[in-house]
Design goal:
Layout: H1 3-9, H2 22-29, H3 33-46, H4 53-65, H5 68-71
Length: 77
């Protein structure tokens, strides 16, 4: 195989970017990134939000402690 053909056959290397993207920055700015991660991990593992009530409550309490309900104009129903 020629050098040119060999290079064309290889896929582009995946860029390993550990910098937080815009979504991550938004989550971090809430002050509840750890609670968000726990909630997402629970759902990923159990595939049922109802099985993650404790994690959801921890996230809600963090959200309120950080005054994110005021910042985002969310309302309790």
């Amino acid at each position: 195989m020629s050098k040119t053909a060999e290079n064309e056959a290889r896929p582009d290397p995946v860029e390993d970017d550990d910098e937080p993207d815009e979504w991550d920055q938004r989550i971090f700015s809430t002050g509840c990134a750890d609670e968000n991660t726990s909630l997402n991990d629970c759902f990923r593992e159990k595939k049922d939000w109802r099985a993650c009530k404790d994690e959801m409550e921890a996230f809600k309490q963090c959200w309120k402690r950080q005054d994110n309900d005021v910042r985002t104009s969310s309302k309790d129903v």
